[in-house]
Design a protein that fits this description.
- With about 270 residues, the protein is of the alpha+beta class.
- It is built from 7 helices and 9 strands, in the order αααααααβββββββββ.
- Strands 1, 2, 3, 4, 5, 6, 7, 8 and 9 form a 9-stranded mixed beta sheet that branches.
- Strand 5 and strand 6 form a beta hairpin.
- The protein is rod-shaped.
């Protein structure tokens, strides 16, 4: 049992120690959460792990770690003997006065300290007040623990955000395969002999569109539109311009989309 006045002198140190334990415990909690997030992020990328399951698991880990940190700090007893030993290590000229005062026990029958005990406690209190030993716990340790807590929390939140927003590698491929996409247009930009026909073929990846249209634009004329025909069950649509006599451009329209304009140049062989 420690004398109440001496206890009140050492209480600020005990309070700072509890705060130090709390910030260190929370920093460890968020560090473990971040590490778990890295593992789940790697697993989801390598083994197609369900991201929802990973997020739920991380939430459980974070909540469990947070609760364990609070319980750990709450259950830690105030060890005034340990506080006295720490102060004595920093101030060896006290010659174990503070430790001796803390270890004093009152008489079991009267619950009072005898004269010598009371004198030791009084001298210890005077030394604590004179040396301002209640400021013993260095503030640097507490600030360092708080910075570590904030850094670990920021890393954990960043990894969780990445896990919540990053698509699985296979997801984009599946989405592309499941949607209508134009793979190629042949012959693209080309030069043809004057008076010859031009055959245009549009090849699609994924489910083909219901229809495709060839839009032909010649200088000084209104654009012409020709329906492209699908070749059997293949995702390929084709059509032809019967005769090309001057330079023109063409594009393919499908499902509300339009390709870029392809240029067709005309040339003649010398007679």
């Amino acid at each position: 049992m420690i004398e109440r006045l001496l206890q009140s002198q050492l209480e600020p140190v005990a309070r700072r120690q509890r705060q130090l334990r709390l910030w260190r415990s929370l920093a460890a909690c968020w560090a473990v959460t971040a590490l778990a997030g890295v593992v789940f992020l790697w697993s989801s990328s390598s083994f197609s792990l369900d991201r929802r399951f990973a997020l739920i698991a991380i939430a459980v880990i974070a909540l469990g770690g947070f609760t364990a940190s609070l319980l750990y700090v709450r259950r830690c007893r105030r060890d005034y003997r340990q506080i006295a030993r720490q102060i004595e290590r920093e101030h060896p000229d006290l010659h174990s006065l503070l430790i001796t005062a803390v270890e004093q026990q009152p008489d079991p029958k009267t619950c009072q300290f005898n004269y010598l005990q009371a004198r030791v406690i009084r001298e210890a209190i005077l030394e604590v007040q004179a040396r301002k030993l209640i400021a013993f716990e260095p503030g640097g340790s507490l600030r360092l623990a708080q910075v570590a807590h904030l850094c670990a929390l920021a890393v954990a939140m960043t990894i969780v955000a990445m896990l919540a927003t990053t698509e699985r590698p296979g997801a984009g491929i599946l989405a592309t395969r499941g949607a209508t996409a134009l793979a190629s247009v042949e012959p693209g930009d080309v030069s043809v002999e004057k008076g010859t026909a031009l055959f245009v073929m549009a090849r699609f990846s994924g489910p083909p569109p219901a229809s495709a249209t060839l839009v032909i634009a010649e200088d000084g004329q209104e654009p012409r539109r020709l329906s492209l025909e699908r070749t059997l069950a293949d995702p390929v649509f084709g059509g032809s311009i019967p005769e090309v006599n001057s330079a023109l451009s063409y594009a393919v329209e499908y499902s509300g989309n339009r390709t870029r304009d392809y240029r067709v140049k005309v040339f003649e062989y010398p007679k």
